[in-house]
Design goal:
alpha/beta; Aspartate Aminotransferase, domain 2; Aspartate Aminotransferase, domain 1; 2 domains; seven-stranded mixed sheet; four-stranded antiparallel sheet; 14% strand
Amino acid sequence: MMIAQGFSTNNEIEKATEEFINYFFSYHRDLSKNKVNCEIDKNKLKQLREIGIPTQGRDIKTVVNEMVEDVYQYGYSVNHPRYLGFVPGPASMISWLGDVMTAAFNRHAGSWMSSPAANSIEQGLIKWLCEQAGFNENSGGLFVSGGSMANLTAMTAARDEVLDEKTQHLGVAYVSDQTHSSVAKGLRIIGIPDSRIRKVAVDSDFKMSAKHLEDLVQKDIRDGLVPFIVIASAGTTNTGSVDPFEVISLLCQRYGMWMHVDGAFGASVLLNKTHKHLLKGIELSDSISWDAHKWLFQTYACGMVLVKNNKHLFNSFNVQPEYLKDLKTEDDSFNPWDYGIELTRPTRGLKLWFTLQVMGSDGISNAIEHGFQLAKWAEDELRKNAEVEIVSAAHMSIVNFRYNPLNMTEDQKDELNQIISYKILDSGYAGIFTTELNGKKVLRICALHPGTTEMDIRGTVKLLNHFFEEAVLEGMFIS
């Protein structure tokens, strides 16, 4: 068989693939026994940067071993049961297999004709997700790379629906001080500068204040500006708080604004039978962003943008260049490139569909439920320590807290909690980082992994207590 010079033979690739898969399954089985992170070898990183591109190809087995031993081992393992930082992305092995199949067949999913079966499945799944959100029959959406792209896509549609060329320079957007940073980034991309992005205050539960929102809107109208979108949150990154959708929707209707819900993290609760009520009112929104690579346990990158009326996406993104006219559809088939930013795209939704087929909606519901329980176990264990302050009680899968000795200044407490985070990260036992709430540095646990146990959670808190006592004994914080 003739092959292009420099390409490995199929036999070599098959053998290397088989060896890697055997390694990967062994690695995954032992994951909970390993450290959450591997200490970075700066000399090794320097060597990797300086490898360069060889003139003659190298043995595939050698390169695979380098990838496994020198590339993927570094950094934090978000698949680890005790990685509790940020919003983790614990991907299931089912999703991994779906992703492997998607990559193996490498379908171009930008148009219906290039991948009709996959696009039919993706659109069927989008419709089902819209139904879970309470959207009507005109709804639709698209699989995208993640929450950032979903927010950007929805905000583009909102701009084009509410503003026109004469008013675009007057458009104002409203976020809370807990809104994810990807929103402000997306607003800048669509032409809304920081000077026209308003930060709405939050209440004691870190939810957007509807009163402050209306005050800001009214002031902007008096100043000759055009309020066009409110971005509410279904599960903020810091605390898992849910903004008051029903009141925000009334204000959006009153002032002619688009209501977008950033549900990258929390929208998955729509698939949980016990807690779905927490998102009451989300059906009143015009659009929703949603990440499947967070609480739906998919490999990166798998996000969704859902819209109440699919024509809004089409109006913003449909183009018909001459080289695509042969792929124009006349029936009810669907070209994804007409509804989003990407022209070339993979079939991102197939692995989620595959996961749901294998697990069923009840299985996903139970896995989501486990996250709620993990946060409750964490809070219960934390409350056993009198020197712990619960700053934001367990909500969804998140709890925020700080070690709060009475004999320390606020600055010392901030430093103390930062050092405790460093200590547990250095130990490799668990991944816990800090954030800031009410001007204070706090420790934060976000637990999503279906394989995380009660022992993992309570053991992590006990280790945090140990590092707290150790830091105090070091004497650097006592006033």
